[in-house]
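Annotated sample (chain length 143).
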Amino acid sequence: MKSTVETREPVKLLCVRKPCTNPEDVGSVANNAISLVESRMPRKADGKPLLTGRKCYGIFTGKEYIAGVAFREGDNAKALGLEEFEIPGGKYARTTIKDLPNHAQYIGPAFDELAQTYTSDPTRHFVEFYRSHLEVVLLMPVK
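Output written by the structure step:
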């Protein structure tokens, strides 16, 4: 697995939080949380959620799964029935999983491999950045 380290800016999210303490349940909880975010977003004329250009993120804290989209000026989390959350900036080790529908089961093992390669920063959470429905960038905070 190819990985690099990069410095990232903080990202403010519109999000939902779902209880999740078992790593084996993350996939189903994440799908539920992502669907909930999509259901609360404004709609296009065809009824689909207006997510074009929105960056989507997922965070598993060990106690909950946070699914969200990057905040835009003018967003009103309360009016949408969502919460706000900020992903801290700083250094992150990163790797990418492509063909996500067929490789989602590799997210956990890929994070494990990053943790074996780099020293993680325990004050920040591991982050999934969904570049599309087909690709996820995994970000592990490093010291």
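Annotation: The CA atoms of residues 101 and 132 lie 11 Å apart.
Annotation: Helices lie at 26-40, 77-80, 100-103, 107-117.
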